[in-house]
Amino acid sequence: MSVNPGFGGQSFIDSALRKIEAVRRRIDASGKDIRLEVDGGIKIDNIRRAADAGADTFVAGSAIFGKPDYQSVIDAMRAQLA
What we know:
The chain is mainly alpha-helical. Helix 2 links the parallel strand 1 and strand 2. The longest helix is centred in the first third of the chain and has 15 residues.
């Protein structure tokens, strides 16, 4: 979780990036094929930072479903990851 648990629409907590980096190092050291999913506050403006920290799977709720055009938000997120 990269927000405080409780409700949707919260802002991403930047200190979660250090935790993502630490977990990615542990996953890599294990030699196992494990996906690292991040849930909470993922938006167009921070998905790249989460990916750079080591996340490879993302949950975006209100960032997508709070907008009138879901596909444009998804496309913009994918563009950030390209």
